[in-house]
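Hey team,

Filing this mostly as a record. A colleague (T.K.) asked me to run one chain through the structure pipeline before their review meeting, and I want the input and output archived in the tracker in case anyone asks later how it was produced. No errors, nothing strange. Just documentation.

Input sequence:
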Amino acid sequence: MKHSQDARKDFAKWAAENKAKLQSLSGEPVAEKPVNYGVQLKGRKNGQEAIVTLYCGKKGFTMTFGGKATPFRKEVERAFEELPFSDEGTGESASERSLLEDVPGFDGVWAGSDESGKGDFFGPLAVAAVAVDRRTAAAFRRLGVKDSKSLTDAQIHTLAEKIREGALACTVLALPPELYNRRYAWFKERGGNLNTLLANGHVNALSGVLRKCPACHFALVDRFSLHNRISERLEQQFPGLTVRQVPRAEADMAVAAASILARDEFVRIMVGLEKEAGMPLPKGGGTQATQTAKRLASALGSEQLAHFVKLHFANAQKL
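Output structure:
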């Protein structure tokens, strides 16, 4: 109950800060009205309108912008990117609030994990885990850390170096195609599947981080299946650990950082494979990937494909 009351108090304070900020930009009084799980603020300047909607939910405090794409709205969006969320003087912003905030006992130190290459016919499967605290999360936000899917490979590489320098702990694991194919076959023979292989990667990556950072007692995983035993295995291995799996967990800074490290490792291995292949290797699992594999088999021999592709993909059946 106290946690809920504190959250409402903090949200009211955050909303007041945002309203004052919008008022300083507007030429007219800011209108305010309640909405589901939050409040909507509406400012006007020179006949142009900007709407800022603030929410208090399970993922922490979030903000969206509405109204036409006018110069005033763009001015508001730029200004609000600079506005910190004050949480008892920590200078914490909404993007630094973990998706674990509502978990009982959460103390602001947590780890997140994510993978890259799961849907790529060519290349490895990479899994990474990163441990952060609120101060680290704030620093990562300022650097531009976010879900790797919204970044270029060059941006990912630059950010990966900074994440490795600034994280409380990090672990990156990768299965190049040949090893991936052997591990997949091993799990398949024992009744497992791709999710079993993925779960094993997340457990191993998070275990590495948790051993390096004993102060971390909370972990977050981007959920990819309902029954994977990740939480059970980790909580048995690390007494006192709480693990949560949620969809779209890349919104959390620890998971976003892990997604960048995993993608950076995927790209690094792909560069090496392309040099060995003597041709560009497409990402994904579409028709282009199948056609490239056919050319590669013709050039190097079909027995060499296991060095470059994941053999259980449907693409391999079309060769």
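Quick notes for T.K.: The two ends are 60 Å apart (CA to CA). Confidence is low (pLDDT under 50) at residues 82-95.
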